[in-house]
């Protein structure tokens, strides 16, 4: 597994690129999370060491912002927007349908096979398309319904491409 | 200094040097309630209890608002009253309200203010989740269910101690004060100074009690229980019984200890004198033989642990002298027990300390005799007060009594160990007399006295000028060390005490443990010193006799064995190593490269990269399992690496290739080799 | 590399000429909404189609050597996202709605080759059926006045020259060469511009404070942490006209004496981040950012900082903490950021929309700006219209316009003929307005009086089938999650308010709880440390004020008048409609439904947990609530 080694090199590269500056902590964590898909404890300790700040400070920052996760997330991160516009147009039934379909127990966000993570987000700013669901941040599905999201989910499971998925629900 | 005036509840008050409305209002005779305001710490402004109404500005937090000339302030209005009562109610709703069985019952600020505000009912639901209590540390117990998130501990640890063990994690109603990754306190860099406990307004942070075990020992007829009392205890214990900080209570203290049932009541002053002599000789020795300077004191166990974790390269600068507590324990277990015809197990050594870190120190594996700890139990001043109360002893009615001999005698130089600068002054008293043929009279060395964080002094001795520094608070220590390491300053000797004001401000002292109390206790100690006939350690004949009888004199091979110690680099945080590459082969060679701070700063990442590149280059990447690990505890000889079970130190980028080839690659066994 | 004022003027002239030469400009909207609907595919389809028909076109304004006559560009958001993907044809201003890539050949054939608009893709009035070709004639746009958004949808946000062709950076030029910093501040003061992000503090005064504050180093921060769930005007500006934001910041920097700026953008806005980064890079390359800009002696640099998901970072001091790499926890003010902000230096923080107004004010003057809006709140304000309104999207209207005009003229009234009940304005910090406020002029002061606030400009239209307690609970859930946890009133207070609201929606609350809720709301408003906490009770307080009867119905009669609060509903099966298929019974998670096959089923009210699954599953509409 050369992968992890490269990740570690990448970690040093990230820290170096930010000049080891404490004010860049959030950006560093964002890039680290991109690399590892979450923020592993030992990596955070490394970051703290490199920035010469107490690890508790790094932990405090990592747990403050909603974007960061200290546990591994699924391959597909599905975010259901629950901003005002989406809420009044029925985002909760979508969220509920997703969780039920994926068998997520209360307080659980990620499926045991690490395939799917379901989160809510307070607003994606795509209110004109409410209700909105995104997959891995880049793929936006607007004017969603509970049935629609289940179709998207099935499409992902059967390995269809993003483009095909968009077509499927459009 | 402002010449302006403000009106507080109709009364005109001068602003003067008041930094905020809170202080101005106090001058008008009103004490506003606060949880998160401490004059020594930065303003946090979170509890909102101190809000007042300012005409034209509405409700403002008095702690964070500077007074302005002409301001009209109302401290008690329907709105402030509604606000304060509601805040208490909100805090209580989320608080583990088992007040009767709480350590802090009676000294809890939340309890006090709830009573003060007349809260008789909590109209909200109970706390929904009970979090586990962390009692892994030898000194401090954390009960998150009682935390009101005022952040006092966080700021204390960060600002005064420079450690940042505690910080907030999560947010909103899920906010918690916790260690890094929620790790047990024992597994992080906490130095057990207990300053977080000292500022905690509730029972969220308390001292780990050893009272029960001490009672058990006292009640065990087989055991001879001896107790030693640190200098700072005698000027603080009275506060628990209505005396003012600094009021002398030594005699009552001794009487109370006897009444509780201790078989011998001794004084840590005895070994404080011994420490001064040993340390003074050590300093003189280093000055003469050109040893490592500056010499740092080592009486403060929080500082010692700090140095072990953060300044491994300075460990040889630390005095090898054991602290007075541990010298005492060593004497009791090695010599006194024998003279009493007992084995070390049969004698129980209890110490009463102002300090919480002493609990940790007593458990250090170095400090044992025949496998038995030299100091069995450490009580804080507060724990002793609890025992006195439990025993029903009416402290104020006690007739003063004297310490037992021979280990109960101490000089004034030992008394002032309890104050920041005290150890330095004692050493000064020792060496000035030691170096001089005639009588030098009393030596009162004022430059090192006082509560300031960093003090400097010079001492002319034998034609040489010694540069001395005294610091209290580890953040101040760090500042000074930074300057020393950068070559900006040079000192011959440095005294470091972790707690503000020295031991008298220790984490085990009575509440309130603030600047005012500390100044009172400090005054108390120096007045005891003034009244003391024995001025310097060598005046204490019991000590010189003991040194003679048991060791054949001071500072020799014998004292070295019983009264001195050594220090070990120590990792700051537990945790898994960072896996760098996986293992495919059955028998790879495991290489852990230290990426802890010391090694990191010496370029351990570059060495890791070099190793990875070499492994790839040599085609053995799959057979070398590389890890980055946090501290192999050889920081003084970094960069350290661990190859299977062997530790190799002093690895540099220059010798990395050679080491890789001769000590790592050779152990990697690809199948085609053999 | 522009080295002087003359260089910029020459470029502006060249760009303007190039623009004039364009006979046709196709603008495919590439805002987040349209991209999500597949507008990039539409853009590609145009490229392919134009290439296939060998029609020459250009994608960059200035650098193109030959004069193609036709330009194909992406654009920023038009605000009418609901109808996306949008394609606009300039100079006629024709707007095509809901364009699919399959439609592109027809558009090219008809519109470009035969100059006949494709009627089926134009706007059709929902009532009159009238077809509207020009964007400006669509009712949604008719009453709008666009200043902050004026370039969104018209310029290519990724082409700095296009911005310059539309007058971009000329305000900066004017400020640098014709005005002193004090004059710039006076102009802004004179215009009466007030902060568009929340409380409406006069921008000019903020600048004046920062200018007079002691300190060599000063900063300008653009607050792009648009966290109000339901507002996206800042996103639109950053995506649609990023240079507008940069220009505003630079003018602010010049005015206060700062040489460095930060744009703090929400993490949820990746496209805005991308466009801003490109804009900064392009401006640097053009010499409009950096040292000695245009030879004026003024230097300025801009950094982009991405947020990481915390609403509270929209609060000035929390935002500063976040830029500094810390937890985004607000700190007490004073000191104000203008005195001691980023790294202790005097700092001006303005929100995106505010900064987008700066260049036009400097170019066209305070007098021009003041012709819009009211004396107390000059200019325009952008609102994000959402909820049960027919047309959702971004609208920029003059201050002082009535709620009625926004909801009924621009927004087209409520969808599905629903009856108007309320408007929730200003997001979690705002409040609810009712029918009685329909003719209230929308400006900072009148809204404040009504207990609401413009806030960031979220405007959710609520119909008669919404429960106001549930609306209040929704916002409370939000702030409760987003509270930083520092001060007691906000941390504990929002949690307990939510607890009480939940109790009410479940029919478990008493009259005492209602009083407690009110008392608590007032305490949180009084006592919280920052704006987030101080305004958090607004949704509760305004709904209590205007819809107390709804609260009382929940508490006294254990009824939700709108039929929204599930726990207060009972589920029944209509015996007439039920076919006895058993689908509901099989899906009921608690086995509360029984009945023989092909016979009407019944729900056991004792077992029923009111999850609504039966209603969702029933194919015959036999399940109803009462």
From TrEMBL, chain A:
It comes from the Bacteria. The keyword Metal-binding applies. It comes from Desulfofundulus australicus DSM 11792. [2Fe-2S] cluster binds at residues 81, 86, 123, 127. Belongs to the complex I 24 kDa subunit family. Pfam families: 2Fe-2S_thioredx (PF01257). Its cofactor is [2Fe-2S] cluster. PROSITE patterns: COMPLEX1_24K (PS01099). This is NADH-quinone oxidoreductase subunit E. Keywords: 2Fe-2S, Iron, Iron-sulfur, Metal-binding. GO terms for molecular function: 2 iron, 2 sulfur cluster binding; metal ion binding; oxidoreductase activity. Binds 1 [2Fe-2S] cluster.
UniProtKB/TrEMBL annotation, chain B:
CDD domains: fer2, TRX_Fd_family. One of its GO terms (molecular function) is iron ion binding. This is NAD(P)-dependent iron-only hydrogenase catalytic subunit. It is found in: Membrane. InterPro entries: 2Fe-2S_ferredoxin-like_sf, 2Fe-2S_ferredoxin-type, 4Fe4S_Fe-S-bd, 4Fe4S_Fe_S_CS, Cytosolic_Fe-S_CAF, Fe_hydrogenase, Fe_hydrogenase_lsu_C, Fe_hydrogenase_ssu. Its cofactor is [4Fe-4S] cluster; [2Fe-2S] cluster. PROSITE patterns: 2FE2S_FER_2, 4FE4S_FER_1, 4FE4S_FER_2, 4FE4S_HC3, COMPLEX1_75K_1. GO terms for cellular component: membrane. Gene3D superfamilies: 3.10.20.740, 3.30.70.20, 3.40.50.1780, Fe-only Hydrogenase (Larger Subunit), Chain L, domain 3, Glutaredoxin, Iron hydrogenase, small subunit. One of its GO terms (biological process) is ATP synthesis coupled electron transport. Keywords: 2Fe-2S, 4Fe-4S, Iron, Iron-sulfur, Membrane, Metal-binding, NAD, Repeat, Translocase.
TrEMBL record, chain C:
This is NADH-quinone oxidoreductase subunit F. InterPro entries: 4Fe4S_Fe-S-bd (IPR017896), 4Fe4S_Fe_S_CS (IPR017900), NADH-UbQ_OxRdtase_51kDa_CS (IPR001949), Nuo51_FMN-bd (IPR011538), Nuo51_FMN-bd_sf (IPR037225), Nuop51_4Fe4S-bd (IPR019575), Nuop51_4Fe4S-bd_sf (IPR037207), Thioredoxin-like_sf (IPR036249). It comes from the Bacteria. Keywords: 4Fe-4S, Iron, Iron-sulfur, Metal-binding. PROSITE patterns: 4FE4S_FER_1, 4FE4S_FER_2, COMPLEX1_51K_2. One of its GO terms (molecular function) is FMN binding. Pfam families: Complex1_51K, Fer4, NADH_4Fe-4S. The keyword Metal-binding applies. Coiled coil: none annotated. The keyword Iron applies. Residues 569-598, 599-626 form the 4Fe-4S ferredoxin-type domain. Gene3D superfamilies: 3.10.20.600, 3.30.70.20, 6.10.250.1450, Glutaredoxin, NADH-ubiquinone oxidoreductase 51kDa subunit, NADH-ubiquinone oxidoreductase 51kDa subunit, iron-sulphur binding domain. CDD domains: TRX_Fd_family. Belongs to the complex I 51 kDa subunit family. It comes from Desulfofundulus australicus DSM 11792.
């Amino acid at each position: 597994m050369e992968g992890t080694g490269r990740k570690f090199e990448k970690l040093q590269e990230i820290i170096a690129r930010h000049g080891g500056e404490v004010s860049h902590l959030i950006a560093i964590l964002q890039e680290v999370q991109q690399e590892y898909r979450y923020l592993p404890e030992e990596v955070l300790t490394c970051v703290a060491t490199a920035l010469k700040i107490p690890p508790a400070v790094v932990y405090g920052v990592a747990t403050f912002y909603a974007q960061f996760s200290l546990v591994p997330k699924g391959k597909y991160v599905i975010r259901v927007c629950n901003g005002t516009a989406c809420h009044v147009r029925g985002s909760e039934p979508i969220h509920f349908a997703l969780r039920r379909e994926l068998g997520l127990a209360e307080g659980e966000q990620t499926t045991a096979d690490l395939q799917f993570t379901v989160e809510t987000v307070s607003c994606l700013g795509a209110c004109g398309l409410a209700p909105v669901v995104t997959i891995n941040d880049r793929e936006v599905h607007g004017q969603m319904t509970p049935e629609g999201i289940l179709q998207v989910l099935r499409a992902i499971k059967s390995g269809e491409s993003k483009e095909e998925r968009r077509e499927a629900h459009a | 200094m402002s010449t302006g005036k403000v009106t507080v509840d109709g009364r005109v008050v001068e602003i003067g040097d008041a930094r905020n409305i809170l202080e101005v209002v106090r001058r008008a005779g009103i004490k506003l309630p606060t949880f998160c305001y401490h004059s020594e710490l930065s303003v946090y402004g979170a509890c909102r209890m101190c809000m007042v109404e300012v005409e034209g500005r509405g409700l403002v937090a008095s702690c964070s608002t500077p007074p302005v000339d002409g301001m009209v302030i109302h401290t008690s209005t329907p709105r402030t009253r509604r606000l304060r009562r509601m805040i208490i109610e909100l805090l209580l709703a989320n608080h583990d309200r088992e007040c009767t069985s709480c350590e802090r019952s009676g000294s809890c600020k939340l309890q006090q203010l709830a009573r003060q505000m007349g809260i008789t009912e909590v109209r909200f639901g109970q706390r929904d989740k009970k979090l586990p209590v962390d009692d892994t540390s030898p000194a401090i117990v954390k009960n998150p269910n009682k935390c009101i998130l005022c952040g006092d501990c966080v700021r204390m640890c960060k600002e005064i101690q420079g450690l940042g063990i505690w910080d907030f994690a999560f947010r909103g109603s899920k906010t918690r004060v916790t260690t890094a990754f929620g790790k047990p306190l024992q597994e992080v860099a906490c130095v057990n100074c207990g300053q977080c406990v000292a500022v905690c307004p509730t029972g969220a942070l308390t001292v780990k009690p050893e009272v029960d075990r001490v009672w058990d020992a006292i009640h065990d007829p087989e055991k001879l229980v001896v107790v030693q009392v640190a200098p700072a205890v005698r000027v603080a214990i009275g506060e628990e019984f209505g005396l003012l900080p600094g009021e002398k209570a030594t005699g009552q203290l001794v009487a109370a200890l006897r009444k509780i049932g201790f078989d011998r009541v001794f004084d840590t002053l005895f070994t404080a004198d011994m420490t001064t002599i040993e340390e003074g000789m050590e300093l003189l020795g280093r000055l003469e033989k050109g040893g490592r300077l500056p010499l740092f004191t080592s009486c403060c166990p929080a500082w010692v642990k700090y140095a072990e974790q953060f300044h491994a390269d300075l460990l040889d600068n630390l005095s090898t002298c054991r602290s007075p507590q541990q010298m005492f324990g060593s004497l009791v277990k090695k010599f006194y027990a024998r003279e009493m015809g007992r084995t070390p197990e049969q004698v129980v050594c209890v110490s009463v300390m102002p300090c919480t870190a002493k609990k940790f120190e007593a458990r250090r594996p170095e400090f044992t005799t025949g496998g038995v700890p030299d100091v069995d139990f450490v009580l804080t001043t507060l724990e002793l007060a609890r025992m006195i109360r439990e025993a029903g002893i009416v402290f104020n009615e006690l007739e003063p009594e004297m310490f037992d001999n021979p280990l109960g005698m101490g000089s004034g130089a030992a008394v002032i160990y309890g104050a920041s600068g005290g150890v330095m002054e004692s050493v000064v008293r020792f060496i000035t007399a030691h170096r001089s043929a005639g009588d030098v009279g009393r030596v009162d060395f004022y430059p090192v006295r006082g509560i300031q964080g960093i003090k400097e002094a010079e001492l002319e001795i034998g034609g040489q000028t010694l540069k001395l520094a005294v610091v209290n608070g580890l953040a101040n220590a760090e500042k000074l060390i930074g300057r020393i390491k950068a070559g900006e300053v040079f000192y011959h000797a440095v005294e470091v005490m972790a707690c503000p004001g020295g031991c008298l401000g220790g984490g085990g002292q009575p509440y309130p443990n603030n600047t005012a109390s500390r100044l009172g206790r400090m005054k108390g100690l120096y007045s005891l010193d003034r009244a003391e006939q024995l001025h310097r350690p060598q005046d204490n004949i019991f000590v010189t006799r003991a040194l003679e009888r048991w060791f054949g004199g001071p500072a020799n091979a014998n004292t070295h064995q019983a009264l001195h110690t050594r220090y070990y680099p120590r990792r700051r945080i537990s945790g898994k190593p960072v896996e760098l590459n996986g293992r495919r082969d059955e028998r790879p060679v495991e290489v852990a490269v230290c990426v802890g701070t010391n090694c990191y700063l010496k370029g351990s990442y570059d060495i890791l990269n070099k190793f990875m590149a070499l492994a790839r280059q040599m085609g053995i990447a799959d057979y070398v399992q590389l890890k980055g690990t946090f501290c192999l505890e050889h920081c003084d000889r970094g960069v350290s690496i661990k190859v299977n079970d062997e530790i190799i130190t002093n690895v540099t980028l220059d010798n990395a290739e050679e080491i890789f080839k001769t000590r790592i690659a050779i152990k990697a066994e690809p199948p085609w080799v053999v | 590399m522009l080295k002087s004022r003359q260089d910029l003027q020459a470029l502006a002239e060249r760009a303007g000429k190039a623009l004039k030469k364009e006979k046709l400009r196709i603008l495919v909207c590439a805002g987040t909404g349209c991209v999500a609907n597949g507008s990039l595919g539409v853009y590609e389809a145009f490229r392919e189609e134009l290439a296939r028909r060998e029609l020459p076109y250009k994608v960059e304004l200035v650098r193109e050597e030959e004069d193609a006559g036709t330009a194909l560009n992406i654009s920023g958001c038009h605000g009418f996202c609901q109808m996306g993907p949008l394609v606009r044809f300039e100079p006629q201003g024709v707007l095509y709605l809901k364009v699919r890539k399959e439609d592109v050949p027809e558009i090219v054939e008809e519109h470009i080759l035969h100059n006949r608009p494709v009627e089926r893709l134009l706007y059709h009035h929902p009532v009159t059926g009238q077809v509207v070709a020009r964007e400006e004639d669509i009712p949604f746009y008719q009453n709008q006045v666009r200043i902050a958004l004026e370039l969104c949808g018209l310029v290519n946000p990724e082409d700095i020259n296009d911005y310059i062709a539309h007058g971009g950076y000329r305000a900066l030029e004017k400020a640098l060469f014709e005005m002193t910093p004090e004059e710039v501040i006076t102009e802004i003061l004179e215009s009466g511009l007030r902060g568009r992000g929340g409380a409406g503090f006069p921008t000019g005064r903020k600048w004046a404070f920062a200018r007079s504050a002691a300190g060599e180093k000063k900063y300008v921060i653009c607050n792009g942490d648009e966290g109000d769930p339901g507002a996206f005007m800042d996103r639109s500006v950053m995506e649609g006209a990023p240079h507008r934001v940069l220009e505003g910041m630079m003018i602010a920097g010049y005015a206060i004496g700062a040489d460095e700026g930060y744009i703090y953008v929400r993490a949820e806005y990746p496209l805005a981040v991308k466009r801003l980064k490109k804009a900064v890079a392009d401006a640097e390359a053009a010499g409009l950012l950096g040292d000695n800009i245009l030879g004026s002696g003024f230097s300025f640099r801009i950094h982009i900082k991405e947020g990481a998901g915390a609403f509270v970072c929209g609060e000035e001091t929390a935002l500063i903490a976040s830029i500094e790499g810390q937890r985004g926890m607000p700190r007490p003010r004073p000191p104000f950021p203008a005195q001691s902000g980023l790294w202790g230096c005097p700092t001006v923080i303005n929100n995106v929309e505010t900064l987008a107004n700066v260049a036009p004010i400097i170019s066209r003057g305070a007098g021009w700006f003041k012709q819009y809006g009211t004396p107390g709140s000059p200019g325009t304000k952008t609102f994000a219209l959402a909820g049960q309104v027919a047309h959702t999207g971004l609208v920029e209207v003059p201050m002082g316009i009535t709620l009625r005009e926004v909801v009924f003229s621009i927004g087209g009234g409520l969808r599905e003929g629903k009856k108007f009940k309320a408007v929730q304005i200003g997001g979690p910090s705002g409040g609810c307005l009712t029918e009685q406020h329909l003719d209230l002029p929308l400006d900072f002061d009148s809204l404040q009086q009504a207990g609401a606030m413009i806030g960031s400009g979220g405007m959710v239209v609520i119909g008669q089938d919404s429960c106001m307690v549930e609306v209040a609970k929704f916002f409370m859930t939000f702030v409760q999650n987003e509270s930083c946890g520092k001060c007691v009133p906000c941390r504990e207070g929002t949690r307990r308010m939510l607890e009480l609201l939940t109790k009410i929606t479940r029919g478990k609350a008493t009259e005492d709880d209602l009083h407690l809720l009110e008392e608590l709301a007032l305490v949180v408003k009084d006592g919280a440390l920052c704006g987030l906490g101080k305004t958090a009770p607004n949704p509760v307080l305004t709904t209590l004020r205007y819809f107390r009867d709804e609260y009382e119905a929940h508490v006294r009669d254990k009824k939700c008048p709108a039929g929204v609060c599930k726990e207060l509903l009972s589920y029944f099966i209509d015996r007439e409609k039920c076919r006895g298929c058993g689908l509901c019974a099989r899906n009921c998670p608690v086995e509360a439904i029984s009945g023989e096959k092909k016979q009407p089923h019944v729900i056991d009210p004792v077992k029923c947990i009111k999850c609504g699954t039966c209603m969702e599953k029933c194919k015959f509409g036999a399940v109803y609530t009462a």
